[in-house]
Amino acid sequence: MAPIISASHVSKKFKRAKKNPGFTGALKHLVKPVFTEFTAVDDVSFTIEPGESVAYVGPNGAGKSTTVKLLTGILVPSAGEVTVCDIHPFENRQENARNIGVVFGQRTQLWWDIPVVESLRMLGDIYDVPTDQFKATFAELTEVLDLGPLLNVPARQLSLGQRMRCDLAASLIHNPPILYLDEPTIGLDVSVKARFREFVKYMNAERGLTVMLTSHDIGDIQELCPRMIMIDKGKIIYDGAFAEVTRRFGWEQKVLVTLSGDEQLNVAHLASGLPDHASVTQPLPESVEVIFDSRLSTSGEIVRDLAMALPIADIRIEETSAESIIRNLYEGALSFEERIDG
Known about the structure:
Blueprint: E1 5-17, H1 22-31, E2 35-48, E3 53-57, H2 64-72, E4 79-84, H3 93-99, E5 100-104, H4 116-126, H5 131-144, H6 160-172, E6 178-182, H7 190-206, E7 210-214, H8 218-224, E8 227-232, E9 235-241, H9 242-249, E10 252-259, H10 267-272, E11 279-281, E12 287-293, H11 299-309, E13 312-319, H12 322-331
């Protein structure tokens, strides 16, 4: 089966004006403009199969939005080739628009002052959706998203969570095979996020909807996307299973100890009795925190050493969260070039 989305050695370069501040700088730039060139997307290649759910992530400025704009036909590549449903998005923007649905967390495609149902009908007309197909899709989306009470309400009167449900319906009313989600759950409360994710998973499973998600919410990625593509400085640095990232970098563990006695603790002396790779802090007078590399020592060994040295009332062991791992990758504290010893 051919990929539904394909990017082959794609690059996108922009020119950026270079001018000095103030009136003099503006005047010089007007007379003799100077530009510098920067590369937002640099030789990016990936494919997405029909029915896949993929997270496309990276720090701010990494090239995520530029890539999505290339896939939606808003931008044309400086080099390489992009195909979506076997067409070139920029060259066939109208045809490409029929194949995709887009949900932006900060923007809406609903008309602000008319009832939601009228927005959905207008979108059906814009996409030339056959009447029978529109009725069937409208009925399914209304039921699954529980839109009944919202259909006659103008978009401006909806809460953020209600608007996101309606925007989901608007993005799928023409039955596109692909759904792009750009920070879709930003600002939503926990319960609304859960309903949003459940619906996307339902559409992915029941319709075979292909989903491409850009999000900084690790919960979105964990819940929706088995596969993750990470981009940094315009280049793809990882493309594979999200679970593999947590397996590979989830080696940092933490042991939290609550002390039962009031004796003074010598942190330096305690650290000398632990492996060299373990770090010891005392966040509170009655507690001790040890962070260690689980590739080099087991939690049992660390607990044993602590039990021999301290009067312990309680022990808690914490593993590295996925959010912490992704944050460290963004900040450069971890690297995919690293290799696990032993």
